[in-house]
Design goal:
The chain is of the alpha+beta class. The chain contains 1 helix and 4 strands; from the N terminus they run E-E-E-E-H. It has a 4-stranded antiparallel beta sheet with strand order 1-2-3-4. About 7% of the residues have low confidence. InterPro entries: DUF397. This is DUF397 domain-containing protein.
């Protein structure tokens, strides 16, 4: 129940049916990050070695900003000015 003037948060997309994909930057399987694209444009990431330990969920806008930044400044590079 919400008070007048406040909107309830939308229900979070369920992960039961999520299709997890291993990152191509996983260093041959030693340091794996898995990504699942969820309904509503959300994205979830988790550690493939500990999939039951939870995940991080991002909105489409936040995930796009993250991807744009990492493509622009790959890990190990100097950030662009």
């Amino acid at each position: 129940m919400t008070s007048p003037g406040h909107k309830a948060e939308p229900a979070a997309p369920q992960l039961d049916q999520a299709r997890w994909h291993t990152s191509s930057f996983s260093n041959g399987g030693e340091q794996c990050v898995q990504v699942a694209h969820l309904p509503g444009g959300h994205t979830a990431i988790r550690d493939s070695k500990a999939p039951t330990h939870g995940h991080l969920r991002y909105t489409a806008r936040t995930w796009t900003a993250f991807c744009n930044t990492t493509h622009q400044d790959p890990p190990g590079s100097q950030p662009s000015a």
